[in-house]
Amino acid sequence: MNYIRHLNAVFQLFSKDSRLNPSHISLYMALFQYWNLNRFPESFLVDREETMSLSKIGSKSTYHRCLSNLNDWKYIAYQPSYNRFKGSRIMMPIFGTSPGQVVDKHETGPRLALVSYINNNKHNKTENKHLGKGRPKTIDEVMEFFKKNSWPVNEADKFFNHYQGIGWKVGGKSTIVDWKATAQSWMIRAKDMKEEKAMASRSHNRATEDYLDTSIQKDYGEPL
């Protein structure tokens, strides 16, 4: 897998494809980054919120539309999970892998080309270069980040222990690119869960109050 040839071929396709907008290209590059960090596997899992953060897409509808477009136009193969706790699976067709390949033609076979790793040491150096951003050095760094965002220390502890236990990966497979972006997504999910719990509690309390309401005057002498 020659990623320079691949990117050159992809950008040639991008320049000729009038259907694409900056969000499509930004999303593709975010997916390519995940693919690169995972050593170009045949397929990999992605987390929606982390991918939106990496691609700088702020709208869920825009994210899903661009993902579907890239799939329909054969830039990627996308298998949605329909499960908020499990990432969607992405497969990346390989472009520009041989001198005689026509870059306007997508590889659409049932299986994607397998990747041969010629220089694993070089890749490991690149992976280590991103290690500082991909995961925190210590739990103190996480606690400091949560404090700056006005979140309690125990929530920082939960976050660190959770991702430390699964090797700082999303879905157990995709390496985290930016742990701070992942932490912010954690805070958003925790806030949403807290609000949902509060709303459920208020609804329960209102139902209980209505049931116990004794303000209605009833004539107990009236026959049933």
Number of domains: 2
Shape: extended
User: Biggest sheet, strands in spatial order?
Assistant: 1-3-2
Order of helices and strands: HHEHHEEHHHHEEH
Helix content: 40-55%
Q: What gap, in angstroms, lies between the N and C termini?
A: 84 Å
Report the biggest beta sheet as strand number plus sense, adding barrel if it closes.
3 strands, antiparallel
Radius of gyration: 24 Å
Number of distinct beta strands: 5
Question: Taking all residues together, what is the mean pLDDT?
Answer: 77
The number of helical segments is 9
Instruction: Give me the secondary-structure category.
Output: mainly alpha
| CATH class call of the largest domain | Mainly Alpha
Q: Strand fraction band?
A: 5-15%
CATH-level-2 architecture of the largest domain: Orthogonal Bundle
Low-confidence stretches: 99-131
Question: Would you kindly provide a brief summary of this structure?
Answer:
The chain has helices at residues 3-16, 22-37, 48-55, 60-72, 120-129, 131-134, 139-148, 153-165, 179-211, and strands spanning 44-46, 77-79, 88-91, 169-170, 174-175. The chain is mainly α and 224 residues long. The protein has 2 domains: 3-96, Arc Repressor Mutant, subunit A (Orthogonal Bundle); 131-211, no CATH class.
Could you characterize what this model shows?
With about 220 residues, the chain is mostly helical. Residues about 100-130 have low confidence and may be disordered. A three-stranded antiparallel beta sheet has the order 1-3-2. A two-stranded antiparallel ribbon has the order 4-5. Helices cover about 55% and strands about 5% of the residues. It has nine helices and five strands; from the N terminus they run ααβααββααααββα. It starts with a helix and ends in a 13-residue tail after the last helix. A hairpin with an 8-residue loop joins strand 2 (about 75-80) and strand 3. The protein has helices at about 5-15, 20-35, 50-55, 60-70, 120-130, 130-135, 140-150, 155-165, 180-210; strands at about 45, 75-80, 90, 170, 175. The chain has two domains: about 5-95, Arc Repressor Mutant, subunit A; about 130-210, no CATH class.
